[in-house]
Each structure stands twice: as structure tokens, then as C-alpha cells.
Amino acid sequence: MIKIGIFGSGRGSNCRAILQSIRDGRLKARPAVVISDVLDAPILEIARDFVVANSYLPPGHFRTRLEPSVEAQLVEMLQSAEVEVVVLAGFMRVLKEQMLAAFPRRIVNIHPSLLPKFPGLEAWKQALAANEKWTGVTVHYVDEKIDHGDVSAQPNTPVLSDDTPELLHARIQEVEHVLYPEALERVFRKLRGS
Ligand code: GRF
Is residue 113 within 6 Å of ligand 1 at its C-beta? Predict the structure, then answer.
């Protein structure tokens, strides 16, 4: 069974969908740990609900990345827990060289747009502002560029004429909760060679 570590900074609805899929046997993986850079993030509560080890990682002084010494500590923590794949689920910091070198093509992210369109924050607002008729979700391997890397899946979500940012984001999240576990199962299958 592939051991995974899930990172997130917020609500954790994708983490919940992943842990539920594992519990139901649809996603074949072992959740080793859930890590958050935000002390009171609901994602840590979700980990506790699913009885998964969880940990707050104080991020250090930078706003958009981890302090290098913290990233080193993180790599060590993941390696000692024998984590094979890191799953980003709303993790709001950019992972740098140490993590990328330790987990090459072993870090997966979900982004709420059809990349390469609308990388960065609040992608659904960007799609609305650009008057897109369709948007969607991308699951991709993480590399040194932000919201970039080989794409694993990209289904579409309609943008409706009376959409608000909240409505559109909620519709995108419904897609995410189905897509992410399915895309991860494909990634894990490839890693298992089956
Ligand atoms: C999702 O919309 C995901 O695409 C983005 O961050 C959000 C996380 O939501 N990377 P949640 O914490 O899983 O509810």
C-alpha cells in the first residue's frame, strides 16, 4: 500500500474526500500523516475524525514558503514516516528545492482551474472575470513553477451566467471531491506498476 502524507492550510474538504475514499476502499493508499502550516486549520480536525496522525508545522518567517530549516525538518519527518507520495490539498505555501529533490514526481496538487489558464490564487474569480464559459479542475505533479507540471486530469465545469464567485467555487469543489481520489488512484496504480 502506498503511504501518503496530505498537506493543507484550510477547510480540508479535499482531504476529507480522500480519506473517505481510502476508508471505502476506492483509493488504495495508507494515510501516514496530515500536516498543516496553520495551527487551527479544520483539515487537522478532519484528520483526527479519521484517526490519522496529524501535525501542525510552524512555517517560520516567510509568508509564501516554508523556512528552509523547516522544510528540511519536514523532509525528515516524511521520510521517517516512510511517506512515498505527498498530496497537496489546499496547501498555501510553495514547496522548494528540498521537498522537490526528496519527492521527485511524488508531489501531487489540485488546482481549481484548467491549467495553464488561471494559475495562482482564487482561480475561479479569475475565470469569472475573464468571462469564461467553462472552467474546471487540474490535478498535476508539482515542479519548481507555481501551478505547473504534468497534468493528470482536467474535467470541465460550466460557468453559469448568474454565477457568483461562491457558487462557482462550490461547483468546482464538488468536481474536485470526485476527481482528486480518482486521479490519485491512477497515480498510485502507475507507481505500483499495476
Ligand atoms: C481547493 O479548491 C483546491 O483546488 C485548492 O485549494 C482548495 C482547497 O480546498 N488548491 P479544501 O481545503 O480542500 O476545501
Answer: no
Atom of ligand 1 nearest to the CA of 89: 13
Tell which one of 7, 166, 173, 177 to mutate to probe ligand 1, the residue whose CB is within 8 A of the most ligand atoms.
Answer: 173
14 lines ligand 1 (CB under 6 A): yes
pTM: 0.95
Q: Based on the residue annotation, tell me whether 169 is a catalytic residue of this protein.
A: no
Residue 71 has pLDDT above 90, yes or no: yes
Question: Would you place residue 143 in the very low, low, confident or very high pLDDT band (cuts 50, 70, 90)?
Answer: confident
Instruction: Please give the Cα distance from 16 to 1 (Å, whole number).
Output: 19
- Evaluate: CB of 18 within 6 angstroms of ligand 1: no
